[in-house]
Amino acid sequence: MGLIKYIKEEMRIIRERDPAIRTSFEVFLYPSFKAIIRYRLAHRLYKRKRYFLARWISQRTARKTGIEIHPGATIGKGLFIDHGIGVVIGETTIIGDNVTLYQGVTLGGTGKEKGKRHPTIGNNVMISAGAKVLGSFTIGENSKIGAGSVVLSEVPPNSTVVGVPGRIVKRDNVKIPREDMDQVHLPDPYLNDVTSLKKENEFLKKELKRVCSKFEMIESTCDKLEELDILLEKLKNQETNKTSS
Known about the structure:
Order of helices and strands: HHHEEEEEEEEEEEEEEEH
Helix content: 40-55%
CATH class of the largest domain: Mainly Beta
Number of domains: 2
Strand order of the largest sheet: 3-6-9-12-14-15
Strand content: 15-25%
Distance between the termini: 127 Å
Number of helices: 4
Oligomer: single chain
Largest sheet: 6 strands, mixed
CATH architecture of the largest domain: 3 Solenoid
Protein backbone atom coordinates (compact mmCIF):
# COMPACT_ATOMS: atom_id res chain seq x y z
CA MET A 1 0.00 0.00 0.00
CA GLY A 2 1.37 3.45 -0.93
CA LEU A 3 2.11 5.96 1.84
CA ILE A 4 -0.69 8.36 0.88
CA LYS A 5 -3.22 5.54 0.62
CA TYR A 6 -2.02 4.14 3.96
CA ILE A 7 -2.39 7.53 5.69
CA LYS A 8 -5.90 7.93 4.29
CA GLU A 9 -6.81 4.46 5.56
CA GLU A 10 -5.44 5.32 9.03
CA MET A 11 -7.48 8.53 9.02
CA ARG A 12 -10.61 6.56 8.21
CA ILE A 13 -9.95 4.00 10.97
CA ILE A 14 -9.32 6.63 13.66
CA ARG A 15 -12.33 8.71 12.65
CA GLU A 16 -14.49 5.57 12.68
CA ARG A 17 -13.49 4.52 16.20
CA ASP A 18 -12.67 7.73 18.09
CA PRO A 19 -15.53 10.19 18.65
CA ALA A 20 -13.06 12.80 20.00
CA ILE A 21 -11.51 13.49 16.58
CA ARG A 22 -12.83 16.56 14.75
CA THR A 23 -10.55 16.93 11.71
CA SER A 24 -8.57 14.45 9.63
CA PHE A 25 -5.30 16.30 10.26
CA GLU A 26 -5.56 15.50 13.99
CA VAL A 27 -4.57 11.96 13.01
CA PHE A 28 -0.97 13.14 12.69
CA LEU A 29 -1.00 13.99 16.41
CA TYR A 30 -2.18 10.55 17.55
CA PRO A 31 0.45 8.38 19.31
CA SER A 32 -1.22 5.35 17.69
CA PHE A 33 -0.63 6.73 14.20
CA LYS A 34 3.03 7.54 14.92
CA ALA A 35 3.68 4.20 16.62
CA ILE A 36 2.17 2.09 13.84
CA ILE A 37 3.92 4.02 11.05
CA ARG A 38 7.26 3.54 12.80
CA TYR A 39 6.48 -0.10 13.57
CA ARG A 40 5.94 -0.76 9.84
CA LEU A 41 9.40 0.63 9.12
CA ALA A 42 11.03 -1.27 11.99
CA HIS A 43 9.28 -4.49 10.95
CA ARG A 44 10.69 -4.26 7.43
CA LEU A 45 14.17 -3.81 8.86
CA TYR A 46 13.62 -6.71 11.26
CA LYS A 47 12.64 -9.02 8.41
CA ARG A 48 15.87 -8.05 6.66
CA LYS A 49 17.77 -9.04 9.86
CA ARG A 50 18.71 -5.44 10.65
CA TYR A 51 17.85 -6.19 14.27
CA PHE A 52 19.73 -3.39 16.02
CA LEU A 53 18.31 -0.64 13.81
CA ALA A 54 14.82 -2.11 14.05
CA ARG A 55 15.00 -2.17 17.87
CA TRP A 56 16.48 1.34 17.94
CA ILE A 57 13.44 2.66 16.05
CA SER A 58 10.99 0.75 18.25
CA GLN A 59 12.63 1.94 21.50
CA ARG A 60 12.68 5.57 20.37
CA THR A 61 9.01 5.19 19.43
CA ALA A 62 8.22 3.76 22.88
CA ARG A 63 9.86 6.75 24.58
CA LYS A 64 7.99 9.23 22.40
CA THR A 65 4.54 7.62 22.34
CA GLY A 66 4.36 5.28 25.36
CA ILE A 67 3.54 2.41 22.96
CA GLU A 68 6.08 -0.41 22.76
CA ILE A 69 5.70 -2.66 19.73
CA HIS A 70 8.45 -5.19 19.13
CA PRO A 71 9.52 -5.00 15.47
CA GLY A 72 9.18 -8.78 15.20
CA ALA A 73 5.42 -8.68 15.87
CA THR A 74 3.07 -9.36 12.94
CA ILE A 75 0.25 -6.82 12.67
CA GLY A 76 -2.56 -6.78 10.11
CA LYS A 77 -4.35 -3.77 8.72
CA GLY A 78 -6.69 -1.53 10.66
CA LEU A 79 -5.04 -1.68 14.12
CA PHE A 80 -6.25 1.17 16.33
CA ILE A 81 -4.62 1.92 19.71
CA ASP A 82 -6.75 4.40 21.65
CA HIS A 83 -4.66 6.73 23.88
CA GLY A 84 -1.92 4.08 23.88
CA ILE A 85 0.09 4.84 27.02
CA GLY A 86 1.44 1.61 28.48
CA VAL A 87 0.61 -0.65 25.51
CA VAL A 88 3.14 -3.47 25.06
CA ILE A 89 3.13 -5.88 22.10
CA GLY A 90 5.62 -8.76 22.26
CA GLU A 91 7.91 -10.14 19.56
CA THR A 92 5.92 -13.20 18.46
CA THR A 93 2.50 -11.56 18.75
CA ILE A 94 0.25 -11.93 15.71
CA ILE A 95 -2.56 -9.39 15.35
CA GLY A 96 -5.29 -9.76 12.73
CA ASP A 97 -7.24 -7.05 10.92
CA ASN A 98 -9.35 -4.29 12.51
CA VAL A 99 -8.20 -4.92 16.08
CA THR A 100 -8.68 -2.26 18.77
CA LEU A 101 -6.42 -1.91 21.83
CA TYR A 102 -6.89 0.55 24.69
CA GLN A 103 -4.29 2.04 27.03
CA GLY A 104 -2.37 -0.28 29.33
CA VAL A 105 -2.93 -3.43 27.25
CA THR A 106 -0.15 -6.03 27.32
CA LEU A 107 0.19 -8.79 24.73
CA GLY A 108 3.01 -10.66 26.42
CA GLY A 109 4.59 -13.97 27.32
CA THR A 110 4.67 -15.89 30.58
CA GLY A 111 8.43 -16.38 31.00
CA LYS A 112 11.57 -17.26 29.09
CA GLU A 113 10.09 -19.92 26.84
CA LYS A 114 11.40 -20.09 23.27
CA GLY A 115 9.59 -19.90 19.94
CA LYS A 116 5.99 -18.64 19.75
CA ARG A 117 5.41 -17.23 23.22
CA HIS A 118 2.96 -14.37 22.67
CA PRO A 119 -0.74 -14.41 21.79
CA THR A 120 -2.45 -14.48 18.42
CA ILE A 121 -5.29 -11.96 18.19
CA GLY A 122 -8.04 -12.67 15.65
CA ASN A 123 -9.82 -10.18 13.41
CA ASN A 124 -12.17 -7.57 14.89
CA VAL A 125 -11.08 -8.17 18.50
CA MET A 126 -11.34 -5.38 21.11
CA ILE A 127 -9.07 -5.50 24.18
CA SER A 128 -10.13 -2.97 26.81
CA ALA A 129 -8.03 -0.75 29.07
CA GLY A 130 -5.48 -2.45 31.30
CA ALA A 131 -6.16 -5.99 30.06
CA LYS A 132 -3.27 -8.47 29.98
CA VAL A 133 -3.14 -11.34 27.49
CA LEU A 134 -0.21 -13.57 28.44
CA GLY A 135 0.91 -16.69 26.60
CA SER A 136 0.92 -18.40 23.23
CA PHE A 137 -2.75 -18.99 22.43
CA THR A 138 -5.45 -17.48 20.23
CA ILE A 139 -8.12 -14.89 20.98
CA GLY A 140 -10.87 -15.78 18.51
CA GLU A 141 -12.24 -13.23 16.07
CA ASN A 142 -15.00 -10.79 17.09
CA SER A 143 -14.16 -11.32 20.78
CA LYS A 144 -14.09 -8.67 23.50
CA ILE A 145 -11.75 -8.62 26.52
CA GLY A 146 -13.01 -6.58 29.48
CA ALA A 147 -11.00 -3.83 31.18
CA GLY A 148 -8.43 -5.11 33.68
CA SER A 149 -8.86 -8.75 32.69
CA VAL A 150 -5.95 -11.19 32.77
CA VAL A 151 -6.34 -13.78 30.01
CA LEU A 152 -4.17 -16.89 30.32
CA SER A 153 -5.86 -19.38 27.99
CA GLU A 154 -7.55 -19.71 24.60
CA VAL A 155 -10.70 -17.71 23.86
CA PRO A 156 -13.17 -19.01 21.23
CA PRO A 157 -14.51 -16.66 18.54
CA ASN A 158 -17.44 -14.34 19.36
CA SER A 159 -16.76 -14.44 23.12
CA THR A 160 -16.66 -11.90 25.95
CA VAL A 161 -14.05 -12.36 28.68
CA VAL A 162 -13.84 -10.56 32.04
CA GLY A 163 -12.09 -11.02 35.37
CA VAL A 164 -8.81 -12.18 36.92
CA PRO A 165 -8.11 -14.73 35.67
CA GLY A 166 -10.25 -14.12 32.61
CA ARG A 167 -13.51 -16.03 32.37
CA ILE A 168 -15.72 -16.42 29.31
CA VAL A 169 -19.09 -14.90 30.23
CA LYS A 170 -20.72 -14.73 26.81
CA ARG A 171 -20.46 -16.86 23.65
CA ASP A 172 -21.55 -16.34 20.05
CA ASN A 173 -22.19 -12.63 20.50
CA VAL A 174 -21.72 -11.94 16.81
CA LYS A 175 -21.84 -8.13 16.99
CA ILE A 176 -18.42 -6.80 15.92
CA PRO A 177 -16.87 -4.95 18.92
CA ARG A 178 -15.48 -2.07 16.87
CA GLU A 179 -19.03 -1.12 15.88
CA ASP A 180 -19.94 -0.01 19.42
CA MET A 181 -16.50 0.29 21.16
CA ASP A 182 -18.26 -0.47 24.46
CA GLN A 183 -15.84 -1.36 27.29
CA VAL A 184 -18.36 -0.96 30.12
CA HIS A 185 -21.57 -2.93 29.62
CA LEU A 186 -20.18 -6.42 30.05
CA PRO A 187 -21.57 -9.29 32.13
CA ASP A 188 -20.26 -9.51 35.70
CA PRO A 189 -19.59 -13.16 36.67
CA TYR A 190 -18.60 -12.19 40.22
CA LEU A 191 -21.92 -10.43 40.80
CA ASN A 192 -23.71 -13.52 39.48
CA ASP A 193 -21.69 -15.74 41.83
CA VAL A 194 -22.41 -13.49 44.83
CA THR A 195 -26.13 -13.41 43.97
CA SER A 196 -26.18 -17.20 43.69
CA LEU A 197 -24.36 -17.57 47.02
CA LYS A 198 -26.82 -15.20 48.71
CA LYS A 199 -29.74 -17.29 47.44
CA GLU A 200 -28.11 -20.50 48.68
CA ASN A 201 -27.36 -18.86 52.04
CA GLU A 202 -31.00 -17.80 52.45
CA PHE A 203 -32.14 -21.32 51.57
CA LEU A 204 -29.72 -22.85 54.10
CA LYS A 205 -30.89 -20.44 56.81
CA LYS A 206 -34.52 -21.44 56.21
CA GLU A 207 -33.59 -25.14 56.28
CA LEU A 208 -31.64 -24.66 59.51
CA LYS A 209 -34.62 -22.92 61.13
CA ARG A 210 -36.89 -25.75 60.02
CA VAL A 211 -34.53 -28.41 61.43
CA CYS A 212 -34.11 -26.48 64.69
CA SER A 213 -37.88 -26.17 65.02
CA LYS A 214 -38.30 -29.94 64.55
CA PHE A 215 -35.51 -30.62 67.02
CA GLU A 216 -37.22 -28.43 69.61
CA MET A 217 -40.47 -30.31 69.04
CA ILE A 218 -38.65 -33.65 69.50
CA GLU A 219 -36.90 -32.33 72.62
CA SER A 220 -40.21 -31.14 74.03
CA THR A 221 -41.82 -34.52 73.31
CA CYS A 222 -38.89 -36.31 75.01
CA ASP A 223 -39.31 -34.13 78.11
CA LYS A 224 -43.01 -34.99 78.27
CA LEU A 225 -42.27 -38.69 77.84
CA GLU A 226 -39.73 -38.49 80.65
CA GLU A 227 -42.31 -36.83 82.91
CA LEU A 228 -44.80 -39.54 81.99
CA ASP A 229 -42.26 -42.24 82.87
CA ILE A 230 -41.69 -40.65 86.28
CA LEU A 231 -45.44 -40.48 86.91
CA LEU A 232 -45.90 -44.12 85.91
CA GLU A 233 -43.05 -45.14 88.18
CA LYS A 234 -44.71 -43.31 91.09
CA LEU A 235 -48.03 -44.98 90.40
CA LYS A 236 -46.34 -48.36 90.22
CA ASN A 237 -44.62 -47.77 93.57
CA GLN A 238 -47.95 -46.76 95.15
CA GLU A 239 -49.63 -49.94 93.90
CA THR A 240 -46.75 -52.04 95.24
CA ASN A 241 -47.02 -50.38 98.66
CA LYS A 242 -50.79 -51.04 98.83
CA THR A 243 -50.31 -54.66 97.92
CA SER A 244 -47.64 -55.22 100.61
CA SER A 245 -49.73 -53.62 103.32
